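Dear Dr. L.,

I hope this message finds you well. Following up on our conversation about the binding site, I have prepared a predicted three-dimensional model of the protein together with D-mannonic acid. For your records, I am including the exact sequence and ligand specification that went into the calculation, followed by the C-alpha cells. Please feel free to forward this to your student if that is useful.
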Amino acid sequence: MKTSLPFEISGGHAVSPPLPRLSRSRLNALPQDVQRPSFDPAALRTGIVHLGCGSFHRAHQAFLTQQAIEAEQGLSALQGKSRPAPWGIVGASLQTPGTTQALAAQDGLYSVLERGPGQTRVSIVGTLCDLVFAPARPLALRRALADPAVRIVTLTITTAGYVADPATGRLDASHPAVLQDLQLVHPKSAIGVLVDGLAQRRASGVLPPVVLCCDNLPSNGRLLRQLCIDYAALHDDALAGWIAGQVQFPSTMVDRIVPATTDEDRAQARRALGLVDAAPVSAEPFSQWVIEQFDGDRPRWDLVGAQYVADVGPWEASKLRLLNGGHLAIACLGLLAGCETVADAMAVPGFAAYALRFMLDEQKPTLPPSDHDINAYARQLLARWRSRGIAHRLERVARDASTKLPTRLLASLRENRQAARPAPCTLLAVAAWMRCVAGMNEAGRPIALSDPLHGQLQAAVSAAAPGPAGLVDALLGVTDVFGQDLAGDIRLRLSLAKAVGVLQQRGARGAVMACVAGTLLDGDA
Ligand code: CS2
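The resulting structure of the complex is given below.
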C-alpha cells in the first residue's frame, strides 16, 4: 500500500498537497486580514431570490446585502437582539451550471477582491444560502419563488436576457425563448420563470415579492414590469392584471465595474485565504446603488450606501450614456487597436480625450435636467477606467453589443441628430462596432464577439458590397439594432461610411486623434 507523504516529489520539485476548499467549517481559520461575515451564514434565513448569479451580482447586491445584514445586526445588538436579519439569497443561474456548482461546493461562500490603488481588500461573502441551476432543479427555484418569506426578487440577466422588442419595449412574443417557454411545463427564460413565480403567489394568496431589476437598461423596473405583464397575458389575462395592480417593480441604477474572473483572481484568492476558492470575483472599490422608493421589507441597504430616490431617471441616464456608452465606445475602438483591457485602451494617446469629449459634448446634452455634477462624474469615470487594479476585458464589454448599442449610443445619437448637434465621437464608436463585426482588428487578428444577433450580423457582413459604404449599408439595415429611422437616414449612412473609411485608412488611433482634433468628418457629422 502506498504511504501518503505530506509532500510528493515530482520531477525533482516538491509538490504541495492540494489545498482544501473554502467552506463554512473553515471560516474561523481564515487569516486575520480576510474579512468574513460577522454572522453565521448557516443561520441565515432566506428572504431574497436572485436570478442570474454571475459575478456582478456577487460583487454588488450579494456583498451589499451582507454589509446591510451586519449593519442591522449591529443596531439590533444594541437593542439586545442577535439573530441575523432574514436576508439570505437563493442564487439561481438560468443558463450555465458552472458558477452555481462551484459555489455550492463551497457552501455558497466566495471571496470579493476589491482592488484599490496599491492594495486589495479580501472579503468572504456568506449571503448565498442556496444555489440553484434552474434547468437542473426547476422545482427548487419554483419553491423558492413561492416561499412567502421571499420578499424581494432581484435580477441581473444582462440586456440580452430581456426579450423585448427594442422599438416598443414590449415583449417580443415571437422570440425563440418565449416560444420555447410556451411549450414547457417549467419555463426557462428569466421572464417566464419570474411570471411563473408570481402566478404561484397569486394562486396561494400570498403577498408578491418586490421585483428589483439590476440590469443596465433605461427605466429598468418599468420595462421589466411591462415584459412580465405581456408574458402573463399570453396565457392568463387575469394574472397580467394582478401583476399590473399588485407587484412593485422599482427601477434601480447599479454601478460597480466587475470584470470576468481570471486565473489570477483565483490564484490571489488562494494566496489570501490559504484555501481554494473556485468562484472569487474581483471588483473596483467603487460601488453605487440608487433605488426607486418602494413599500415593503428589505435589507438595510440604506445603511451601507444605497440611496432611495423618487426618480431614478437622471441617475440611470447618466450611468447608461456616460459609463456604459463610454465603455462600449472605448471597447470597440480599443479592440480594433489590438488592446485587451479598458485600462490598456485608456493608455493609448487620444483615447482619454476622446472619451471625455464623447461624454461631455455628446452625451451630457442629452441627459434629463438634474443637479448632478456631470463634469465631475465624467472625470471620475476616466479615473475608474484607467485603474490597472482590475483587468476589464474589452471583449466582455463589447459582448452582446447589438443589444447594448440602442440604449448606450443610438438613443443619444437620435436626440443629437434631431437637435442638429454634431456627434462625431458617437458616430466613430458606431463605425468601430461595424468594423469589429466585420471581424478583424488592425493587425489582421480576428475579433470574435459573441452576440445574440451573431447569425444575422454575419449574414449582413457576408452579403455586404465591398468598401466602407457596403459595410455600413449592410449593418445599418439590421433594423433590430438601428430601427427603421436610422436605417433610412441617408446622411447618417454617409457619415458612418466616412468614419469607417477613416478607421480603415488611419486605424483607431488615427481616427480617435482626428475626432479629438475635430477633423474626423470635416464638420458634416
Ligand atoms: C459594462 C458594464 O460590460 C459592460 O457592458 O459597461 O458591465 C459596466 O462595467 C457596469 O455597468 C459598471 O457598473
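In brief: Residues 1-12 have pLDDT under 50 and may be disordered.

With kind regards,
A. P.
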